[in-house]
Amino acid sequence: MAEVKQVTIWARGVTQDMEGRHLSLLVANSADKDGKFVQAWDDYADLPDRVGVPLRKYARISEEEIEMRYEYENKQPNVVIVMDDTIIKGMDILHGMPKGGVLVVNSKRSADDLLKFIPNKELLSSITVVDASGIAADVAVDFMGSEGGVEVAAVGKGISAPLAGAASKATGLLKLESVVAVAANKEGVKQGAEAAKVKKL
Amino acid sequence: MANPVKTQNLEHIKGIRKVPQEEYYVPGHRTCQGCGPALVYKLVSKATGPNSIFLGPTGCMYVANTSYLCSPWAYPWMHTQITNGGAVASGIEAAYQVLIRKGKYKGELPNIVVMAGDGGSIDIGLQAMSGMLYRGHDALFIMYDNESYANTGIQTSPATPYGANTTFTPPGKKIPEGKVLFPKDPPQMVIGSHPAVHYVATASVAYPVDLINKVRKALNYKGPAFLHLHAPCPKGWLFDAKKTVEIAKLAIQTGMWVNYEWEKGEYTYQHTPKEYKPVKEYMKLQKRFDHLTDAHIAKMQAFIDAKLKAPGKPIAVPVQGPREMA
Amino acid sequence: MSDFKFKIPKHLEVPMGAVIPAPVKENPGMITGNWRTERPVIDHEACTLCLNCFIFCPDACWHLDEKTEKMMWNARYCKGCMICVNECPADCLTPQNELDFPKGVVRLDKPF
Amino acid sequence: MAKEVFYSGCAAAAYGAKFSRVEVISSYPIRPYTGIMMELSKLVANGDLDAEFVHGEGEHAQVSIAYGASAAGARAYTGSSGVGVTYAMECYSPAAGGRLPCQMAIADRALDPPGDFGSEHTDVMSARDQGWIMGWAETPQEVFDNTIMYYRIGEDPRVMLPQFCCQDGYFVSHIPGKVILPDQKAVDEYLPPYNNPHPLDPTRPVSHGPQIFPDQGPAIDLQRAQAFLDTPKVIAEAVKDFNKQFGRKYSPFVEEYMTDDADIAFFIMGGHARTARFAVNHLRKKGVKAGMVKLRFVRPWPTEAVAEALSKFKAVGTIETSTSYGGAMRGGNLIHEVRASLYDLPKRPAVTSFMAGLGGEVVTLNEFYEMAKILTEAAKSGKVKKGVYWLGFEPD
To answer: What ipTM is given for this predicted complex?
Structure first.
């Protein structure tokens, strides 16, 4: 079985639910464009989401068909993307991460500032910080794509776009042009990639 | 010789300082930031005190409060199906009547409270609610109204206002206003045909002392009572979590919600503004109404104007049903 | 048939009939302090003890301490909805970003 | 003092409940079980039974009231028939999962459409997988006795499960038979008061039924499965004690009639077992070595007892009285479980099934003779031609 890259996204309930789902879709859709096998989905146990609750969204990328498709959770995330920086304080966001993982955080703060809140940072090979909220505002909340529904809003309009750009730069898993191709806010993706500061650890 | 069934007498309070500091709906539940129904639960629990049994039909206040295998209720609580809150409460009340009569339970009759959402009250739970109220059980049926099936991701219920965007009434080209129907009037349904009920009231999280006193008054009646409690829902109505109480107040100031009591046939009204603000002021703070045109809002205003002529009483409202409009 | 024997791992055990004990003061099974992006910071000098924060908090995270005559805030469970800030007539509550405080949240593995 | 009366199955059930000192009763009318509640309402109205009689607004409410009362610590009783039984379907699982041992009397009835008030087991057989104890009675006496026995079994701390106490509509429910009413004191000795270990009681608060983690689902299912594994032992004790206390001769799970040297056997439950006995008598006179095995519990299904009882025959015919449309044998339900019970045995009888007694149709002696003919053939050849015979509808 080929290695499956696990991407876990942390977001806030309701206010970031759709953008979180969009980010997982951008990761999966762009990798799909690159000819990878992919999947993107909501954490079923985190739903129904409540305003403010920490939520997980997932994506998987593989060179071969994904055999573990029906497992609820990414138990060993290689990449963790945090859409709201305060989540790093309350959650063990790196839980299960194999050594050498990548962390991407949406924050105005510095990487060093954020690392203070991450006691198991030795698992990381890098931390990338981008002020995604400064690049693209959150878009309106819309529930129509939740609970297995088809997304009505265009995918990647809000903060998911710059974060996907930053993730492309931080991980090398996704080609930037592929992310740009699948995102609604193409400028946002590019700006995110540009603005992202990658710090090797 | 049968033992008499002793009931509790709960004190009327004068102000916020007299509200018990003790919490019986304790911190630690997975309800939204700024959750109106959670605030209702807290206030009702303060009103009842610990000598109570609460029934929780399926809904937000079941799922969010017990996820997973934990509980925020310091008094006995039981899950019921969304369908049968009133019926399970009836069984519990009947059990206490006979257990006390037979001397098997020594205490006073506990306050038996059903905390049902709008779906568990006036939609799928209507039959059980009506049955409990009709049969005269000494129990309180509370409908905490957050105006949708919120737990499953905001679907329309008979309490959802006209024009609301829910995931089952999305606005579209053919149906621009989203929800087409106007809501049921829950207290009127109860008042209209339940001879055993002597007390029905509405209350809002905007006026907590009033809410607490109404819960206590309802429980002091030996027999069934019904409360309709307004509980703004930041997720379903799409407003900033900090505005829950503000929105609740605005509902009263615009006439979208009216606080009143119906006691043995007499109506009294509380918190009536000198002059009602236009409903638009209330609606514009909630993204669920974002898609509405001025014509839609005028229709809502006409509905509210008609209702405000005699809140809680049957009145012809100038609203056409979907078949009439077609 | 009689050799039907099972072993339920400890972490999957559910009490008979799914009946669990009621909590006393708090529900430690659902700590919600990690929901906050901001916390309300109180200026005790400006506080008039009107009790609005106490009565309007859906999560029962404000209490009057009788001894000190001060409002006490529950950091473990406050979700940061900011109703208290919105409803404070004395303007003695200010929201402040959670990361400005190095301590004060229980770290959890799971969001629920 | 014990006394002998002539009671219908309905009255027998009501008096069984009275002698069990039920505390909360929930009613709703539907034929043919209605008579049970009519009797109980009289007893309550006259003060002969100190119970709360709650008129539910439907069967769904009836079961909800019953399990609510059970959660509060009272012995609860309800009942229904036909579409009433299926209307309450949602409530069966919460009652069983909450381990609330209320009892529901069933006088069974065919389901709609169209309106058919005749007896058929399909109504409550549809609920057999909801976690309730379930079994049929053959006579009003057995109805009365089962009512008391079921409370004893269901309320046992090793069990704590609700019970469907079933009888055939009309045949058993409406035709009076001899019933010995025991001394109340003897019943009180046999059936201790109901004790819910975790009632809804403000002096010792608990929460009933919070949500669980998804992966705890199988664990809680398993817990219920385990309860059903422990139940047969409790049933055996309860039946033995009952026989001793009241001088009856019940077998706990399967009752055998003329089976010692039988080649063929009818496998049956409920009222038609009575006719089956006469059929066996007549067949014996004609030289046919026939016997009968009557099933007393469908849940828990007595796998070993069924296997032991049936393995000695050459051919067995299950009399179905319920439907399983599109099921493995294209007919009823019993044959599935019978065949499964026999599968692991080195020597198995040939087993077929007979669709008989559906929709209130009488199972006549002639039909039993017809079945015997088919079974005799199977006994000779060692195998059955078909898995199901729709009696009266078979081509010549």
So the answer is: 0.95
